[in-house]
Amino acid sequence: xxxxxxxxxxxxxxxxxxxxxxxxxxxxxxxxxxxxxxxxxxxxxxxxxxxxxxxxxxxxxxxxxxxxxxxxxxxxxxxxxxxxxxxxxxxxxx
Amino acid sequence: xxxxxxxxxxxxxxxxxxxxxxxxxxxxxxxxxxxxxxxxxxxxxxxxxxxxxxxxxxxxxxxxxxxxxxxxxxxxxxxxxxxxxxxxxxxxxx
Lengths: 94, 94
Hints:
homodimer, about 0% strand, Monooxygenase
């Protein structure tokens, strides 16, 4: 498959927006601290990234497919970490 | 501008992945707590979302342009909140 320069911009974009989740996943995995992380954000993001992947498949846009497949794994991972440590947080003071 | 059904899937995806940041921005704006949020994530995400918008403009893909323009405002807002409250955190115990 040959890519034109527009697809290279898409790949750069996809690399950044996908790799962006890595430091967050690593930080959360290391600290187990999820109090400041929004559960609603990661629930909606997981559903949305899945739909972007479907959109990429329908448009046959390789950058969109690849970036969102990896994003789905990382965002889904964050959602799992949030759910896992959500109830382990120190309850807020009354 | 007329959209076909594939673009509607893109719009649903874009609505979800864009709206996803709203509860996070609201939570962070309300609590001013950014200790569990990754600075590297929001820096890379801001750059990446900007490039996705450029990609959408080059491909003339309305869903990609619209979703990423709004995402850029929200992700950039989170980056500003993180930078603003970053040094106001309680320092970790030795």
